[in-house]
Specification:
304 residues; alpha+beta; Arc Repressor Mutant, subunit A; Multidrug-efflux Transporter 1 Regulator Bmrr, Chain A; 2 domains; nine-stranded antiparallel sheet; 9 strands; 39% helix; globular; sequence-specific DNA binding; DNA-binding; HTH_AraC; transcription
């Protein structure tokens, strides 16, 4: 069960590691042990797009980031990502983003980049390996304090949901939102990770948010359908688990961290929760950072 989810995920990994090389369905299929036709058909069934189109969208997205972040010649970037000429690259860029490479380099703006596909998740892994003992790498959540400076947050606040899965199921287009925020990665608040989810509170009700933190002086464009809010400086309690195997241990790690975060009493550390005008954050980068829930606190009045 889910054998082809795993196989197509290997195809996605192959594309990412060979993004600047000539596409070779034959080499990829040889690695997987299936015919090129069968690989291509299964990729289309699981992702909703052809392998050729997926490679094209990922290449043009990588190229856009190089236009934004480097001073390489447009022609050199075009050739690097497999375009036969600068003109061909320009046509592809306009088709993808409705502006020319030159215009984007001169004045970068939020655009919808193609995000990396994910078709083999921890859910699929657990079904596939249901007899495996779970949680063997799990360790108790660490607790530490961290001060985050005043910043702005660009994103979407949805008061009707309280978790990641329900947020995306509630009419929010993951590819569009994540792809657009990817194009704004150069504006992320220094010292913080990029795209961030979390929780907020309105009139005693808890909702879910998704977006990016940016510096307090950010005055650039706000993507359509998103908003920008000011978040005051605050100290946070961070409930944290270090890097782990995403497929094998994601569910267990997230459950352990969130249980610790929502059941913790900060009084023993001289704090009280301060979530009325601020918001909680999640950091979820399994193999590089780990997983954390951040809740804002303030010193108790009797501790000052």
């Amino acid at each position: 069960m889910y054998e082809w989810n795993q196989m197509v995920q290997l195809m996605v990994d192959w594309v990412e590691s060979h993004i600047t090389e000539p596409a070779s369905l034959l080499k990829m299929s040889e690695r997987l042990g299936y015919s090129p036709y069968y690989c291509s058909r299964q990729f289309n069934q699981l992702t909703g797009m052809t392998l050729r189109d997926y490679i094209w969208t990922r290449r043009i997205s990588h190229a856009a980031l190089e236009l934004r972040d480097t001073d390489r010649r447009v022609l050199d970037i075009a050739v690097k990502y497999g375009f036969s000429s600068q003109e061909a690259f320009t046509r592809a860029f306009v088709k993808a983003f409705q502006l020319t490479p030159a215009a984007y380099r001169k004045a970068p703006r939020p655009i919808r980049l193609a995000i990396r596909q994910e078709v083999f998740s921890p859910y699929h892994y657990l079904i596939k390996e249901r007899d495996r003992m779970s949680g063997v790498h799990l360790q108790p959540a660490e607790i530490k304090a961290e001060r985050i400076p005043a910043h702005k947050f660009i994103g979407i606040w949805d008061i009707t949901v309280q978790n990641f899965g329900d947020f995306w199921a509630n009419g929010h287009n993951c590819d569009e939102i994540c792809g657009t925020l990817d194009s704004m990665s150069n504006h992320t608040l220094p010292g913080q990770l990029g795209q961030t989810a979390g929780w907020f509170y309105r009139d005693g009700q808890k909702g879910y948010l998704y977006g990016i933190p940016v510096p307090p002086d950010y005055d650039g464009p706000i993507p359509e359908g998103m908003a920008c809010r000011e978040i005051p400086e605050s100290e946070y309690l961070v409930f944290f688990h270090p890097p782990f195997d995403y497929l094998k241990d994601n569910g267990a790690v997230m459950s352990a961290v969130e249980e610790a975060a929502w059941s913790f009493d900060p009084q023993d550390m001289g704090y009280e929760w301060d979530e009325e005008t601020k918001q909680d954050y999640q950091r979820h980068y399994p193999e590089g950072y780990g997983y954390a829930v951040l809740r804002p606190v303030r010193k108790r009045s009797d501790e000052v």
